[in-house]
Design goal:
The protein is mostly beta strands. It has two helices and ten strands, in the order H-E-E-E-H-E-E-E-E-E-E-E. It has a single domain, classed as glutathione-dependent formaldehyde- activating enzyme (gfa). Bound molecules: zinc ion (2 copies).
């Protein structure tokens, strides 16, 4: 009797995985591929006002991993600051992502890619919080040092 050999490389499937996302109405369709550069929650006033929510769940991706499949012409852009180009669907008003050219990353809102298992690792801009979240994750005063922030953490 011969045992079946398992030659499939482990981890390959998750590395190359593609996750499908869309805006509220479905006019804008896109995918993200691989694994995000980071996931977490942003408590800053800009995110709160833009999303009309107490906190923004973010997932950060390199621009080449985000592909628009449909509705590129429906995407509106607003940039209050050169750091953040906020994008939404012109048909439904649903928010889809924010381009951060300075960081070289795109924040695709966790809420618009339900297929992606959301595994937050950090809270940012916690000094501005309106919703304390006692989940044991690090609470950055502003941003991690590698993202241009102070790198200081706060108590929950
Ligand atoms: Zn839409
Ligand atoms: Zn924010």
């Amino acid at each position: 009797m011969t045992a079946a050999t398992e030659s499939r490389p482990t981890g390959q499937a998750t590395q190359n995985q593609t996750f499908h996302g869309s805006c509220f109405c479905g006019s804008v369709q896109f995918t993200v591929s691989g694994q995000p550069a980071g996931m977490g929650y942003c408590h800053c006033e800009s995110c709160r006002k833009w999303s009309a929510a107490p906190v923004n769940a973010f997932t950060l991706w390199k621009p080449e991993t985000v592909k628009i499949l449909q509705g590129a012409d429906k995407i509106g852009t607003y940039n209050k600051t050169p750091n953040s180009y906020r994008k939404w669907c012109k048909d439904c008003g649903g928010h889809v992502f924010t381009d951060h050219p300075g960081m070289g990353l795109i924040d695709v809102y966790a809420g618009v890619i339900p297929e992606l298992p959301f595994k937050p690792g950090v809270h940012v801009h916690y000094q501005e919080t309106k919703l304390r979240m006692r989940d044991g994750l690090p609470k950055m005063r502003d941003l991690p040092a590698e993202m241009g922030g102070s790198g200081t953490t706060l108590a929950e």
